[in-house]
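Quick start: read one record
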Amino acid sequence: MSSPLILFNKPFRVLSQFSAEGDKETLASYIEAPNFYPAGRLDYDSEGLLLLTNQGAFQHIIASPDFKLPKTYWVQVEGELSDEALTQLRQGVELKDGLTKPAIAERMASPPVWDRVPPVRFRESIPTSWLSLQIREGKNRQVRRMTAAVGFPTLRLIRYAIGPYTIDDTAVGEWQHIAPTDQLINEVNHFEQQRKRKTASSDRRRTDQKRRSDTPRNTVSHGQGVAGRQTRAQPARRTHRK
């Protein structure tokens, strides 16, 4: 049986979907695997690791922040990254949609990665630096907004890892089937068991509601009718003339 997971190293300016959208390049240009779909997204202008699966439970576990699979990014920023900025990233950054959770943020040397096409535009008067940033959330364009909020705009963004999976052995634009880890399988099994319990509980409630709705009203347990109030005809009142 083939693996339910595919690891893809997404190039720059490729949509994380198979369906066409204008003249933008999509996953269909790279992956031929029927019934596999992305587990989560990676922005059009971001590069690196994207996981795909053909099973709904795997897709939910990988994509949902509730299961806290850490995502590690290599980020090239404009300027020399300061200690103050690193501290802010580690403690949480205030964005328009709320405070981010504490991240693991470290300076790093330029990683041995592929040349981007087209290349990053540099300004000769402003240096650049690289940052390794690990987060456990999924806010829209979160990493870019975080670095901008601490004064260092993102120039290039590469997702290096999702949980234990990395792009180490996969060249840009290539994909491969990978085996799910024991931890991921356990998470999926636990999720499936919870979903079955919720479904069974929901079915019981619907059955009980149907039974109640099918039971005739105004009856008691021994089958006798409930005594109703008798309505007596009210005699017509005569109007007395004075």
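The longest strand covers residues 154-162.
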